[in-house]
Structure formats: structure tokens, C-alpha cells
Batch of 2 targets.
Target 1
Amino acid sequence: MRMLLLCILPFTAALFAGILPNGRARPIALIRLALLVGTALVHSALVASIWVTPAPGILAGWLAVDALGLIVLSVTSAVFLATAIYTVGYMQRESPRGGRLFVSAMLVFLGATTIVALSQHLALLWVGMEATTLAVAPLIFHRHDRRSLEAVWKYLLISSVGIALALLGTFFLSSAQGEGTGRPLMLPDLLDHARALHPAWLRAAFLFLLVGFGTKMGLAPMHTWKPDTYGEAPSLISGLMAGALTSCAFLGVARITEIVMAAGLGQFAQPVLIGFGLLSLAVAAVFVIGQSDVKRLLAYSSVEHMGLLVLGLGLGGVGAYGSMLHVLNNGLTKGWMFLVAGNIVLVSGSSAAAANKGLVRTIPVSGTLLVLGLFAVTGSPPFGLFLSEFTILRAAVAGGHIWIAATMLLLLAVIFVGMAMLILGMALGSPEPGVTPVRESRWLIVGPVALAAIVLLLGLYIPGPLNETLARAAVALGGTVP
Amino acid sequence: MWIDVTRYVEATVLLQALPFTSSRQGAPALVLLLVVLTNFTVLGTTRLSTCIRALAVQGFLLGILPVLLATIFSAHLVVLTLGTLAVKAIALPWFLRWAIREAAVRREVEPLLGFIASLLLGAFAVGLAFAVAARLPLAAPSTELLVPVSLATVIIGFIVLITRRKAITQVVGYLILENGIYLFGLTQAESVPFLLELGVLLDVFAGVFIMGIVVFHINREFDSLDSARLTELSD
């Protein structure tokens, strides 16, 4: 029942939000926003209830919760709730087209990500992933100007090719399933009969699914859409994409990794994952230096963290645990940082570093969150990302990959310097003469503060049930528990 | 000059694949050969209208393939055939032609990579596809030629996508890539029947409705469908 509600609720709400007439008339706009926040709240409550008492699978097991799915679902739900609350404040300030399409597309996005997180059938997972691409396109194009047009064109073209390659990979996976290997493309059956799958087809499936879903994650070298899209989309949408959408895309990669590891092809898959991971870190390090725009900077930071996620999978051992913890930390932190970036844009009209000075003084709350976020996002203690990045580093050392560990540390250090130069330059210093401190709306602050608090807590203490779920996910990915 | 090269490449491909046509599965093999030829037509033509006509022919060939490959008659087969014909042979080419007319796109293809180079790359793709397919175990013998042709079509779609400047030719490349995936899907039509249709439907949605809308906005904003002018955003 709860499972069905989780999947159906967002789509139903999207339908209602779409039926309501467009326009900025107060009562209708309020009802639409109430629908958005209400759906987000119910969704989060349902996800929380699944943590307490597990829900049985539905639709003949096509939709079910497992450890990996639950982690991704929780990140998505939390980031969406924070963003939904933020949207209320955002719409008061800026809603060029009434917001009907905006709210509906957000709710469809929530529904599609829920399907991705819960699906145990790889074709259904693909359908959900395709739906997220389509739902997010009108949101990126929200401002309807030349730059957002260019961004949405790049995003659609590159993601569509990625998702097409993932479809081919799904067909390859179905080719790998001969007679007597259970129901086609069902994850539990694939895992049970993993060793009976054709290795050649399985390898091909792994490569295509990795490149396909990797494109949606924004792994280098398929990351080229990312800075443009995150830079031009409204900040809260960039946050949803960097926090929730990339986590879902990572789930796609994790699913095929699960199967490949169960089939005993780790020797083949792990070097490929490590390669993509290190390349993403390197690309991020090169482009972070000398950035002049905070949203584009965060986009490259997202490329970095996607690299860390697959690096953890590739290293295996405790790395798999580190990766799953990192999904949680990275998703929440990206939501936090992009919402803060949104507040900066609302005040100064630009996310460029040159247009923003002394933010700690002009917008004290967001300015402080920006500085804290710098330390969180670069993996400094006491934030959660320190813990997960350190776990991945430990996996590299424990596996005897000293060079990988050294490269990772070096690149992380370069990224820290690059990000600190830009962000500290914006946050500190004295504001332009004539700029007075602004009181920010509570709606715009609640979300990022809550996300920041969770990331801080995750750095200090990992609750028992979470640890157990992370451990189960790590074992499913062929790893071990630290 | 380039016409000669086209002819030469096409003749070579035909000769290479001729032995297959004489085997037990003559009709499907012939259709698959024609699919390869339509790919080369897209690679070698200077005219946008020829591109789209080739895409329509390819869509038609893809539509009749399930019937030719089928061993038993089923409702699913009818739906798949009619659906594919309607979408890939009629709706998509019509939409593209309408887009060109409405947006007053110039009729030339404007490649970033020369036609001869594209054709040679295409020929290389076919060779590569046959080499790769030979190393992959096949589920059923009836799909002997399906796998290499599908892989070749995917690669050629990719080539068109990255070597042509106009937004609309990039959409053509994407659709060819999709066609290649559809061909591969035919080998799996029995184990996961619905996936093929979903692929067709969703890609139509992505490829045409969404991209189509964007194409129109590009035209309005930039007075041209040249995606190479979309260069405001870069590092």
C-alpha cells in the first residue's frame, strides 16, 4: 500500500497541479504550492516509515525496496522536500510563467525518481530514467532565453544519446540471459543466476550501461553538459539534478555493477570504474581552478563527486560502503549548496564571483552556509563527506593501490584550493559600497539549513539502522563492511 | 567525386554481405542490406531532403522486418509492425520535413567532417561491427546478420550526430542511432516484448516532441538551426 502510494502520489499531484489554471492569482498559486510541499512531506513521511517497518514489494516484485534503493530514495526525498519548501520562497520572487508547468514538472520528476529507486526490473529502471530526463527539460528551460536554450539543447542531446546507449546495454543484458535464468531483466533473478549469464554479453552490457547512465551522472568525459546545464538552470533545479537525479543515475550504474560482481567479473569491471573515477577527478581539478561562477564551480564539484562514487565501487572492499555513504552525503550537500547559490542569485542577480563580494555581511545566513558548505563539499571534518571520502581512500590503501590513493589525495587538494579561492573571495571581504544587508525570507533558508544539519550529523554519528542498510548495500556490491 | 566513393563503398558492402542473402533467410538479409545502404546515403548526401528520405526508407524497412523474421503470427507482431511503420516511416520524416519548411532551414547538410571522410568512417564502422558481432555468441541463428547491422547502424548514427553542424541533422543522427538499437531489440523481441515498443514510443517523445520544440526555439532565438552557433556557454 505504502509502496503504491509512493509511486502514484507524485504523478497524481502533478496532474492536479497541471489542471489548476495558470497565472499568478493568489489563491490558485497558493494551492499549487501547497500541493507541492504537501506531496513532498507525505513522500518523505512514507520513506521514513519504510526505514521503520519494511514494505513488501508490489506488482509481482517489479517494485520493491532493497538497501541500495532505499538509500537513493531517501536522498531524493530529502533533497526534494528541502527544494519544495524553497520553491515557495522562490515563486514569490521570480515566476515568469505562473509556475504551472514548473510545479507539475517537479512533481513528475519526483515520481520518476521514485520509480527508478524502487524498480527491480531493469527495463522499468530505464523507463524511469528516461522520464526524469524529460521532466527536467522544461525546468532547465524555465527562463526561456538564449543561454538556457543552449543549455537545454546540450542537455537533451547528450542525455538522450546516453539513455539510448543504456537501452542498448539493457538489450545486451537480456541477450546475456539464456534459457533457465529466470524472468527476463528481473534483478533478483539476474543475481541468482549471475554465473549462468553469457560473460561476453554481460561485459558488453556493463560497458554500455556504465557509459549510458554515466552520461546522466555526468562522469568525465561525458560531463560536458553539466556546467552549462547547472549554470543556466534555476538554482533549485540545479540542486535537484545534482542532488537527486545524479544519485538515481548512479543507482543504474550500481545495479549493473551488482550483477557483474555476482557473476565474478570484478576483474574486468573494477579497472574500468577506477578509470572513469580518476578521470572525473582529474577533469574536475583542471576546470575548478580559475572558475569565475559559483554554479559552474559546483557543477565541476559534482563531476568530482560522481568520480568518487564510481572510484569507491571500483576499489571494492570498504570502498563500496564508502560509495553508498557518499551518495547520501553528496546528494544532501549538493542540494544545500545550490539552494544557497540560489539565494545569492536572488540578491545580486548573478552567480558570477565578480558580482558578489562580502556575502557574509550582506546575507548573513546564506553567506555563512556558503562558507560552511565549502568545507563540507571539499570533504573536511566534521562533515559527512570527510567520513565517506576517507573510507574510499582507505579502500585504495587497503587494496594496495598506493598510486591511486596518492593521485586521489593530490586531486582533492587541488580542487579544495580552487573552490576555496572562489568561494572565500565571494563570502569574505567588504561588500560594494551602497549594498546593505538583506533579511532573507524564511522559506529560502529552512531547506539549506536542514540539509546542512543532516550532513553535519552524518559526519558525527551514523545511526544503527543506517549503518546496517549501508552494510547490506556494500555486500550486495561485492564489498565489505568497515 | 564523392558520388563515386559512395558507389564504391556501397558496392563493397554489398559484395561483402552477398553470401548471406543466398542463405536460408533471404528476405530479411536483403532488407538489412538496404538498411546499411540507407545509412551510407545519409552519410554521403549533401542535401537535407535526401537525408530525411533515406531516414523514411530506413523506417519502412525496420517496420517490415518483424514480419519477415516472425515464425508465428501474433497480435503483438501486428501492433509492432503498424506502430513502427506509423512512427518511423511516416510521422518522424513528416515532422522533420515540416520543421525544415517552417523554420526555413537551408537545404544543405553542412558537415564538420567531409563527405568522403564520413563515408570511409562509415565503411570502417561496418567492418568493425561485423568483427565485433562475430565474437559475440548469438541467441538464435535467425539473427545472424541482425547484430552486425544493428551495431553498424548505431555507430553510423553516432558519426552523423557528431560530424554534422545543424541541429536538425543531429536529430537525424540520433534517430539513426535509435534505429540501430531497435534492430538489436528485434533479437530480444521474444524475451522482453514490451521493451521494444517502449523504446520506440519514448524515443519518439524525446527525439521529436521535446527536441522539436527546442529546435523551434533555437530558430527563433538564433535565426538559424546551426547548433555550432550555440557557443555562448564554454570554459
Target 2
Amino acid sequence: MSTSVRGPSAARPAAGTPPAAGRGHQHRRPVVQRILGTNPLGWLFSAPYLVFVIAIFAFPLCFSVYMSFFDYFFAAPGANVDRPFVGLANYTQAFSDPAVLQSFVNVGIFLIINVPLTVVLALLLASGLNSIVRFRTFLRVSYYVPYVTASVATIAVWLFLFGQSGLVNQLLGPLAPSPSWLSNPALAMPSIAIYVTWKGLGFYILLYLAALQNVPTELYESAATDGAGKVRQFFSVTLPGVRPATVLVLLLATITGANLFTEPYLLTGGGGPEGRSTSPVLLIYQQGIQQGHPGYASAIGVMLVIGVLIIGWLQNRFVGGRNES
Amino acid sequence: MTAEITTTPRGGGRRPGRRPRRGRRDLGTPRRLTRGQVILQGIVLTIGAIAFLFPFYYMLVGSLQNAPDTSIAGAFPNPANLTLNNYVQINSRINLLTGLVNSGIFTGGVLLFTVVFGVLAGYSLAVLQWRGRGVTFALALLVQTVPFQLLMIPLYVLIARNYGLADNYLGMILPFAINSAAVLIFRQYFLQLPRELFDAARVDGAGEFRLLWRVALPLVRPALVTVLLLTFIGPWNEFLWPFLITKEASLQPLAVSLANYISTVAGSTANPYGAILSGAVVLAAPVVVLFIVFQRYFTSTDLGSSVKG
């Protein structure tokens, strides 16, 4: 690839010019370079991205935590209004609000079903795809397609498939649950969890496929020499080999699960039945934007993120398996 | 480093005996399976693929049914029950073309910002030496783990209320303007270019902008396709943010107007499922087609590097 630039001009520096120039460089560097580094232009190139990160991530993040301690409400821009500091009132209110607690229980049910299912299926399918020879591209693409398609579009089909008289119930015949999947209080959240597993699995397969490339072949060879069968090889070579990927998949699946909004909003008609599929983000939307309590909504958001951080830390602790910490 | 692994066609690799040259794509592949295991594996993967593809097939079939047929026979197209009427129906309720144009503007804006500023940031992270580079790199990794649910309310307050950018394309684009995964993919590709290349061009007096535009960028063209593809699916499929920020129907991306149709007006249509599924086909088709055409750029190593850093 370097041939495209190798010409008479590009060959010249090899003849000893750069060392001399480099030495002179080190002794008297301009002030700008001493403060900003050898290539101050790097700052300029990264400046738009840094501004973006500060404006869209860092500042709103702090603003959100700030808002959660105030009785914040919407006002016309520039209007000088009093938004009283309420301390932890938003948090205590959230902890005693049955709807909030229910939504956290719901997301817990979701994670218990979705996360292990995602990890197991993604790893199994990725191992299969990694070693299969025929139709590899076709199979790979079929698993990725749900991931690249809009949730709104795939939800439309699931509504059709899992409706009262949908194809799934037709196939099940007398075994069909009543009330049907999405309107059954006990089945609504598990149905959403299965839908999300199906929708996102492609991405996790992709991550595992990348990780599987890094498991050294010699390990399989020596395991086979020691008489380990395929199953044994999977548990003693593949599984430890992809452990960093597993930690990542666990974390990303948990974050995605905590972000659940579109599915309960559309699939179960806004968190129904009886609020049994309400997600915290749906509540944040209802409280913060529909009902105009952004402070309260932010408090729910902060609680949710702290929950995710704790789960993520536990996952890293117990699955990461590193000696430090 | 092993970017070819998932894309290499397996031509000639099927000979059962000893391979003359062990290809790199063999790395990490468990040793040969027995015939029975291969067949079992094939069956499992095929059943899985059917489960993943069937809803898409069903979406298409359902969108063409005159009367919704949820029976098992309804899963097969019945010539007597085929119609394009559902597409006309949905188009009269939500303007599909307007929705597609809005999705296109939203996605196009994000792509433009991501490519221009993402390339600059990726280049400075990979090639240039400057103080704060490590911190910026760490930020790009960290940002991807920040959950949107915490940003939703403050961003809404800032963008819709304080800056008055509700019902505005810019307001829609801003939170997604620069895709951090794209920055990391660009960085990864620029890192793979030989250093001498840059040193040589610099000695020749090329400025950094020229170097980036004339030397580095043409060499990372595959990264450009990967980034475009990956970034495209984000805003095109995004529902929550444009849903919050656009109340005016003529500005809503297709995902939002279709969702509004599903949640509110669908009941008043003769064949709501047919209409909904037609809208779903129109929303899904551009991404699925683009993805299938460019799937070889959607490889595990390209994207893996962006998340692993």
C-alpha cells in the first residue's frame, strides 16, 4: 500500500535529513509546542469533537444530576423563575412511588432473561459461524439483519406475530397463552426481553466473532492432544479465551436493557398491561416531558444509572476474573 | 490486523485433507469437526437463520395481504389476497415520501458531521503528537458507555427549551452529530498506516491538512465505507430522540411517524396491520438493502476495534 506514495521525493528523507532536523527540534521548541505537544494542530483537529463531547455529554450529565436536586420546571427561555432546591426530595419521592419501583422490578425481570440468553446464544452462534465453511456469509448476514433494522419496523411484525390471533398463537393452538403474550401481565416483560434478544443478537455475535479470532489455535491443538473433546475444548479453551468479550457483552446488554423505551412504548402500548412492562426510561419520558417534572425524571435517571454501574461493576468483578481490584 | 478474516471468500478451502498453506482465517478456528458435528452445526445455524429472517419475510407478505390472514396458510403468499393497497393506505395517513426525506436529512446531517469531524479527530488521535491526546481517546471510549436515558431530559431542556431547536433538523442532528465509534474506527485505520509515510511527506513540506487529504484519507477508504454504514443505521433507526423533539408531522422522520401511526391512528384503518407492515417495509428496506450490498465492510474486526479501543 505504501507503493502509491513511494517516489523520488518520498525516498529522500531516508538519506539522513530527519535525524538532523529532529535534533535541532528538541533543543529550542517554540512555546506553543512546549505547552500543546509536538503537533499543536492535533488540538485544532480534535477541537470540534471535544466541543461536541462537552456540550452533548459532559455538560448535560452534570446538568442532569444538578436538576435532580431541584424542583425544576420548564419556562420560556430567558424568563427568570425560581426553581427551589429540594435536596433529596425527588429521590425519596421516587423510592416511595410504586410505579417507579415496579419499573425497576420490570427492568430486573428483563435483564434476568435477556442478558444470559444474549450471552449464551451469541457465543454459541458465533462459535458455529466461526467454524462453518459453507454459506458463511449468508448466515452471518441473516443474523445481523435484525440488528441493522429499525426497532419500529421490526416491532410492527412482532405485534402481528404475537397478537391475540397472530401466527404464533395459531401455531400453538390450544397451548396459546390467554390473555395473549403482550397483553398478559406475567408474559409482557418476558416477551419484550425475547424480542430485544432477537433484535440485538447480531451485534453481540459480531463482537464474539472478533474475539474468537484472537484465541490461539495452538490451545485447541494442545487440548485435542490431551484428549479433550469438542465440548471440553469449548469450556476450557473458548470460554476463557473470549472472557474480555463476555465482560463487554454483559455490560453492553445491561446498558441497552436499562435504556429500554421503544419496546414498551409500542409493543405493549405504553408499559401495559397494568404497568407490568413499564420501563424506567418510559417513566422518565412520562414524568419529565409529558408531565413537566424534569427534576423528578432526572432523579429516576440518576438512580437507574447508579443501578447499572453497580451491576456493571459486579459483572466485571465476577466474570472479568482479573486478579487486581 | 486480521481485517480479512471474516471477509475472505472460502474458495478452495474446502478440500478435506491437509491444506497446503494454512490460511490466516484458520486462526482461532477449532480443529476439524466430524461429519456428524458439521451437519448438526449446519442444522442449528440454519434454524437460527430462519428464525432471524422469517419476521422479515412475514413483514413483506403481511404488507401485501388484502385482508390480514394470521392463519398458518397466511404465511404463504396467496395470489387472490395480494394487493398494493396497504401502501396507498399508509401513504394517505403518513406521507411516506416526507418521512423518508426527513429521515434522509437527519441521517445525512449526522453522516456529514461524523465523517468530517470524525476523520479530523481520528487523524489527530492516531498520527499527531499533542498533549491531551490520551485524555481525548479515553473520552471517546467513555462516551459510548454513557446511557442516553440520563442525557434525555437535560438535552431536551437545553435543545428544545433553551435553544429553541424543537421541530428543527439541527436539533434532531445535534445529539448524534459525531459518532464516537466512528472516531475510534478512523483512529484504528490511521494507526495502521506506516509512520514513514507521514514523516516523508512532512519533510517534503506537506502541511497536515494536505497530508490528511491527499495521503492518509485515500488509504483508509474501506474505513470510510464501514463508518458510513455503521453511522447510517444509528439515526435512520433512532426513535426516542426525534420523537421527543419533533411534534410537527411534516418534520418527523419515518420511524417517528410510523410509530405515531401504530400507537394512535392504526385502529381507524380497515386493515391496520397491512398498513403498519407496509410502513415497516418502507422504513426497513433502505437499511437492509444498503447493508446487504456493503455487508463485506461490516466485519467483526473493524467494529470490534471500535468498542475494544
